[in-house]
Amino acid sequence: MNREKLIDLIKSRGSFLCVGLDPDLDKIPLHLHEYEDPIFEFNAAIIDATRDHCVAYKPNLAFYESMGLFGWQSLQKTIEYIGESHFTIADAKRGDIGNTATKYAEAFFKNMAFDSVTVAPYMGSDSVKPFLEFEDKWVVLLALTSNPGADDFQLEIMDGGVEKLYQKVIRTSCTWGSPNNMMYVIGATRPEYIKEIRAMVPEHFFLVPGVGAQGGSLADVAENGLNSDVGLLVNASRSIIYAGRDEYFAEAAGSEAKRISAEMKLILQKKGLI
Ligand SMILES: O=c1ccn([C@@H]2O[C@H](COP(=O)(O)O)[C@@H](O)[C@H]2O)c(=O)[nH]1
Questions:
Q1: How many CB atoms lie within 10 A of CB 171?
Q2: Ligand 1 cavity residues, CB under 6 Å
Q3: Which of 82, 99, 124, 210 could pair covalently with 189 via S-S, beta carbons 3.0-4.6 A apart?
């Protein structure tokens, strides 16, 4: 999906919600275990219940890879089930030398029809650029993550006090691609940094995980991160997909997605963006 289509989708729906598909066999309702592929059944029900309220889906690969071949099959079926109506993010956090990175890119962009993949910047430009060679596909680069451990390296002051590591990552990497094929992961748990990052990269989209289960605030993220194209995809995984744990789990997920998306619509209306 290209940038124009993504912006149209967000503005026409009045939502910048990304639903995280992180299914865990230990958490999904018991009655689904009777199906041949309980993970796919779970995802399909969540997708049916949330598709009108969100613009993107983000399966985190760990939840599929942990189940081996069956997990990959569930992922493939899930991505086909979503189709082209929503922006899709393979949250795989890949990164390796160039020829290997190309194979990762082929896995998510050719073999599976994802629109984007999360990539770690640690190995530098040759590990990221192969992902940028695919038309209408996106790199979502880890910049300032939502977890407490982000303090260990990302907030470390570099180069004799000039800038922090996440700032160097953004300043350097923003020339590798463009706002048409690169986004940044910025955690919702760090709203105090979002305004400054928005000033550094005014046009890029941010994928913002960390609202819901991790306690980040949608209002704070929007206040600091919106741009004239909206420029945000805010992800919630557990707070939506496990909003209910019984046979009405999908309805509960749909209600939670609807609630967040209504809050987003109000924000966008107040800002004059829709
Ligand atoms: O900085 C990051 C990068 C990725 N994630 C991923 O997003 C979801 C968040 O799930 P919740 O249940 O809404 O907390 C999950 O897949 C993480 O691995 C992140 O949280 N922070």
A1: 12
A2: 20, 22, 60, 91, 145-147, 185, 187, 209-210, 212-214, 235-239
A3: 210
**Ligand 1 centre from 139 Cα, in Å?**
17
Q: Compute the 3-state secondary structure of the chain and give helix, strand, coil in percent, each to the nearest 5.
A: 50, 20, 35
Q: Which range of residues forms the domain containing residue 138?
A: 3-270
Length of the chain: 274
**Interface pTM, i.e. ipTM:** 0.99
Residue 93 catalytic? Answer: yes
Say how far apart CA 43 and CA 79 lie, in whole Å: 10
Token pair recorded at residue 259: 């609630």
Give tens-digit pLDDT for 175-205: 999 999 999 999 999 999 999 999 999 999 9
**pTM beyond cutoff 0.80:** yes
Domain CATH code at residue 155: 3.20.20.70
Residue written as token pair 């999360």: 118
